Amino acid sequence: MNNFQGYLLKFGNTILPHEYIQLDTYQSIPNQRIELSAYRDSNTDLHRVTSQNYKTTIKFNTMPLTLEQKIDLQTKIQAGLVNATERKYQVNYWNDEDNQYDTKYFYIPDVAFPIHSITENDILYNPVSFEFIQY
Question: pTM for this structure?
Fold first, then answer.
């Protein structure tokens, strides 16, 4: 059954439009297993203790953005803000491993906003890289 509803990311109740994402840069690494411990026994067989709490990481670059587009993108992402100090956001995302949407909390590491050019009343940004790392 196809559960896809036409979007990749939603912050709060606000969908992030695909027009802002360079789709060929979008990477979702869902359900990453976290190894708590591992060792090899005397037969060199691997034994792993893996957390039941999986984590997802999402990365993408934007398209080149005008100042107005950058502000609009930031406003859409802010719709999921839970804690500004921690940069903690509630994100509903398409999980490619489970083939369904999932909602989790993510933080956003520092973001650089590279400028391509400026005019008298606008700024054109080079693609901006975003990363979302699940709590």
Answer: 0.87
